[in-house]
Design goal:
76% of the residues lie in helices and 0% in strands. It is an all-alpha fold. The chain has one domain. The N and C termini lie close together (9 Å).
Length: 122
Amino acid sequence: MNPLILATPLFLLFELWQLVMSERYVGIKQIARNGDPRKLGLAEITAFFWSTAIILYWLWMLALLSSPFSRVHGLILLIVSIAGYSVRRNCGLKWVLVTLTLEGAIRIGLLVSLAGMAWRRL
């Protein structure tokens, strides 16, 4: 079994954190008052850790492709991330939250599935 799979719970927590942060910055309250999330001023330390985690997450997804055990999960995680990004780029602010939530839910499901497969293999 690929030792990279041991990082799955960390990225699962990161996905949950991303859902909370997306609700905070692009949530229903922001949409109701026509707030622009780019003008809210994300704290520098939060932006640093969020950006670093996203880069590590992408590298981890690419590394999952190297193992036959996790190849399918890594590929689908990458496809969902790329598709979600392309949809978010082309939709209005009101649909960004819906897209982020759906994309996050799919990725969380894939991470839970990967963790479950790894657990059964132990």
